[in-house]
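=== RUN LOG ===
request id: a7f3
mode: sequence -> structure
chains: 1
length: 158
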Amino acid sequence: MKPIVVVLLLISHAIIAMMGFAAGIYALPILTAPEAPKDQVIQQLAREVRFEAELRRDLVDSDMLHWGEGRIVIGAESISLLGSLAPGPDYRLYLSPEFVETEADFKRLKSTMVNVGPVKTFSNFIVPIADNIEPADYTSVIIWCESFGEFISAARYQ
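=== RESULT ===
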């Protein structure tokens, strides 16, 4: 075989391997996610609403792979979403004293935020609020991908 053919074969196989790896990273969280809470459960929690907000797709650092949309409800014991998120690994829900919509702002303000907990489903979610967290001390909810340092979405609730 000619050297150029060998090089082209190596490059094409490397590209296919990288595409397969990327597809696996994208698909694994979807395949391993627990069953999402039913709409009725989220709507029941919404009756105990302390704060609410809307996640939107059109934020500065949201894009076609990193987005959220729907109604966020902050109750006495949990934060829930009636909506959906772009699938991804290692999502975390933060409360922030300031609204942010960029990765740079998130990183700058992360020390002032509180990590409420993991987001494990992409269509509706419920994240329990620990007793030592007071949502009234913050203004915004942020969904962040810890593994890749990616901004997903945010909403201001007060």
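=== NOTES ===
Residues 14 and 20 are 10 Å apart (CA to CA).
The radius of gyration is 19 Å.
=== END ===
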